[in-house]
Design brief:
single chain; alpha/beta; Rossmann fold; four-stranded antiparallel sheet; 18 helices; 44% helix; binds adenosine monophosphate; binds zinc ion
Length: 515
């Protein structure tokens, strides 16, 4: 079997050449990544609250975190990535207002909260897989850490917290420079101060929420502050410390977390560690995916989930590509036209790479190149690597490496990859090896996807692929026999069934099913 490696050396070497610069929301500037532990990268990503399906905006946060992880791996760091699953504690408002999201959904569906968590965690994992997001080293489940959260809270309670009727609260005036991370550093919290009777400062937040007298919650634990549940922010401080040690390298999340959740995590970290450090060296935030018609609201009937994209005939990796086309710090506006454009671009890349694979296979079968093409990283000789760098690919590989190292400029990196696909008259094995290496950073599965994989049958389709192919063959025969009335009738029938007939499509994509 011919292998196009899991880790080719060409762009890896190029990547090593450029220092990795990342934007730190805390210092508000680009910083060179220097790991806390030599040769390692430890990353924590705030995961979903599993009370409902994730929308595609949520998934943008994980495509971003995954891309960061892939870049760190390719820079040669041993990556430990943690993503948590929030199955307790998150209220409908990120501050301490509203109802518990999990309890609310469980009540609405008349199901156990544990079943709700299980169902939506699996749905989230399905989306993770569909978007080619790599498995982190740990999925940390918040409810597994409640005893650790209670111990943690005990250790900060005396110096940093105060008790109210409704639970234990963190006094934000007890730590240095509270809220330094947040941009909207206003008295926005004013609205929140009334929510909880007796709070000392607007920004103070719950460490422990006591179950109100006379109420029972499905999820509650005994604690020194009464039966109840942990405040939402506590879990991430506890789990990141437990799994990554403190300080660790990078903490990620969506931009909304920069305002409340992460400042509160930082305050807890400072209290627990007894120092002014934030706990993570770099705090990174992806900007939002926005959609103006409200379809991303989880309360809208048909809200924008990965499965909805698939149901409409889009390959999920078209959405990944759409995310990567924008810089993670820019807002990205969702539209079906934009997704369609990304899908066409993905198809073009897949077809380009598959042409190269066919050509390579032909060379192998004609014994022009050896079957065991030595494209595995450790088998490359210095001469070969230097050869790649002095090859027509060299400049583009360096551009790719520089783009990726420049705060993950995936938009430029994609164009570099396309340039490599389009190169002619170069060693096709080198070309495929370079593409495999680039794709390992972008996660588009270009070396394995086939034309067939990209043909996603829309759920509402009323015609099968076999029927389409048969109709197209009949149409071809009718045309050959100059029976244009018949060929037009076949075409009209296909159109009526949602099939776009694409005569002369340069990619050889003869038809498209669009319903
Ligand atoms: P949640 O399940 O609400 O905790 O959100 C999961 C992740 O999605 C968090 O990192 C959020 O910051 C992020 N997020 C929420 N909405 C969007 C959006 N529209 N675009 C990008 N990220 C989002
Ligand atoms: Zn978190």
């Amino acid at each position: 079997m011919t292998r196009f490696l899991t880790s080719a050396p060409i762009s890896s070497i190029a990547l090593q050449m450029s220092e990795l610069k990342l934007f730190n929301s805390l210092t508000r500037q680009l910083e060179t990544f220097t790991p806390v532990h030599e040769g390692e990268a430890r990353v924590y990503t705030c995961g979903p609250t599993v009370y409902n399906y994730p929308h595609i905006g949520n998934m943008r946060a994980y495509v971003f975190a995954d891309t960061l992880g892939r870049v760190l791996s390719y820079k040669g760091y041993r990556l430990t990535h943690v993503i948590n699953i929030t199955d307790v504690g998150h209220l409908t408002d990120d501050a301490d207002a509203g109802e518990d999201k999990m309890e609310k959904m469980a009540a609405e569906k008349a199901q156990s909260i544990w079943d709700i968590a299980k169902h939506y965690t699996q749905a989230y994992w399905d989306d993770i897989k569909a978007l080619s997001i790599r498995q982190p080293a740990h999925w940390s489940i918040a409810t597994d850490y409640v005893p650790a959260m209670i111990d943690y809270a005990k250790s900060i309670a005396e110096k940093h917290c105060y008790k109210l009727e409704s639970g234990l609260y963190f006094d934000t005036s007890t730590v240095a420079n509270y809220g330094a991370l947040a941009r909207a550093k206003t008295e926005e919290g004013e609205g929140r101060i009334d929510e909880v009777e007796g709070k000392r400062h607007a920004a103070d937040f719950a460490i422990w929420r006591k179950t109100p007298a006379g109420e029972t919650r499905q999820m509650e634990w005994d604690s020194p502050w009464g039966k109840g549940a942990p405040g939402w922010h506590l879990e991430c401080s506890v789990m990141s410390k437990a799994l990554l040690g403190m300080p660790f390298d990078i903490h990620t999340g969506g931009i909304d977390h920069r305002e409340i959740h992460h400042p509160n995590e930082i305050a807890q970290n400072q209290a627990h560690e007894g120092c002014a450090d934030s706990g993570a060296r770099i705090w990174m935030h992806n900007n939002f995916l926005i959609e103006r018609s409200g379809k991303m609201s989880k309360s809208s009937g048909e809200f924008l989930r990965v499965q909805l994209l698939i149901d409409k005939g889009f390959h999920p990796l078209a959405y990944r590509l759409m995310c990567l086309q924008a810089h993670y710090r820019s807002e990205l506006e969702f539209s079906w036209e934009g997704l369609q454009a990304a899908f066409v671009r993905l198809k073009r890349m897949v077809m380009g790479v598959s042409t190269l694979r066919t050509r390579h296979a032909e060379l192998v079968s004609a014994s022009i190149v050896p079957n065991e093409q030595t494209v595995e990283a450790d088998k490359w000789t210095l001469k070969q690597v230097q050869g790649a760098f002095s090859s027509p690919m060299a400049g583009t590989l360096k551009d790719f490496a520089a783009a990726i190292a420049d705060d993950l400029n995936t938009a430029i990196a994609i164009t570099a990859l396309e340039d490599i696909v389009g190169l002619k008259k170069i060693d096709v094995a080198h070309q495929l090896a370079a593409l495999a290496d680039m794709d390992a950073v972008l996660g588009l599965n270009l070396l394995t996807l086939t034309r067939q994989d990209l043909r996603i049958r829309p759920k509402a389709a009323i015609i099968t692929e076999a029927e389409i192919e048969a109709a197209l063959t009949a149409r071809k025969e009718a045309r050959a026999a100059k029976d244009f009335a018949k060929s037009d009738a076949i075409r009209d029938d296909l159109i009526a069934k949602g099939v776009e007939v694409m005569d002369g499509d340069p990619l050889g994509w003869d038809w498209n099913l669009d319903v």
